[in-house]
Amino acid sequence: MKYRNVIYTLTGLALGAAVTGCEGEKDLIIIEGNLPIKTSTLYMVGDATPNGWSIDAPTQLEATEDDPLVFVWEGSLNAGEMKLCLAPGSWDAAFIRPVNNGEEIGKADIVNATFQMHAGDPDEKWRVSEAGVYHLTFNLRDWTMSSSYLRGQDAPVIEPILAEALYIVGDATPAGWNIDAPVALDKKSDYIYEWEGALTAGDFKACTASGSWDVAFVRPLADGCVIGKNGVESADFMYCAAPDYKWHVADAGIYHLTFDLEHYTIEAVFKEEIVNEKNPIDTPTLYMIGDATPGGWSMDDATAFTVSPDNRYIFSWEGELVEGNMKACLEPDGTFSCPFLRPASAGCEISSRGVASSDFVYTTSPDDQWKVTEAGRYSITFDLENWTISVKSLSENPGGDTPGDDEKAPLETETLYMIGDATPGGWSMDNLTALTPDASDPYVFTWEGNLNTGEMKACLQPDGTFSCPFLHPLSAGCVIDANGVASPEFVYDKDSSDPKWKITSAGRYRITFNLKKWTIEAECLD
Fold this sequence. Notes:
By secondary structure, the protein is mostly beta strands. Helices cover 4% and strands 40% of the residues.
């Protein structure tokens, strides 16, 4: 017998003798199952909860007097997803979750359903199927939860919003989705804010501070509330972190907006069409800027054109372009707030075949750009009298004469993630939704779970700053619904126009990306 086995045997005999020799010793108690979760605080987070996906300000539950490990909460839940944590501030902590992803909280009572608790993946969440007022109970002693649907959602509490400022943000506004520099409204009184300017077709919401998405926003009562030539579909709004409802501008034009933060109403008056009078543009200089150009997005290193000695409206440039986006300006102002020469529609392609459309506009918004799809040497000419652009490829074998030029190389990656308010993790770079690579095909990635109404895009490896390339649809708002995806093709770039897929029907989906064929499939499983 080995030496250590002898030691184990003697130790066991000694322990046995000690146990049998001690009078009055209690029997050894074996604890089965999970130990109670010892905590004095409990929070829930998710777009179903009042504070949305803000991990820094999640919704707190209350410990009961009878048992400090039993927590309760009563209030309004939105349709969406949720999970629980013991403390705010970190997505890396362990979360309380359902045993199976997507377990439903709805009108049917739930009594002592078992939950689990762990960090990391899989990221199981409860799915609230019916918006309303609920009573929730989480028993951290026996790891169970109960839910009772009490009634439909109460009318929003209208408490006057005292704010020093009000901003609008969204792709319908001149600032786009830049939360660091949203469009400021004029303060007319303590509660009245007004703004007049150009809105393009798209979405927007309003906020009282810039710089963060993890705050309450002024939103319509229903997602997609239409603003158009006839005004706003419904004047009432709410002020909350979730759900992420937005107004939808159906008709581009000049609008006068009025927000009443005391009575929670919005007025939208259509003033006139956006008119671009094409008078000759007089300027001694012209520059282009963008990640397709030699100077990138640096205003200090914008690429200069040369004016023709025979015609002051003709500006030309010759040089190398890479794949990416570009626009042009008369004189860089260093702030990106100056008007730009832009294509008449977003994503107008420049390639070895020239430019897809010769017309351009001169405006501050929307932030449409030309999209260079083939790197190479080009000659670009702007005619500022007739508002046209012409492009000629100077590279060898223009037009893709080389076999295989039109074929896209497969995207090589071991990881793929989705992000967006339609996905379980929302717009948090710390809570991305991971897809799973196919065991038999490394270019195929699949995910199955619940999607909310909203938007999404995908990336190979997040960088935490949103400056990495993303997988985008070919055009903004490409619909994913019960019928699948409207168009299977995608692109992979840093397109600043930031097109996204738009989920119009919430439900359980199977999403499949093929990085070799550059396609996406969406199957509704409900």
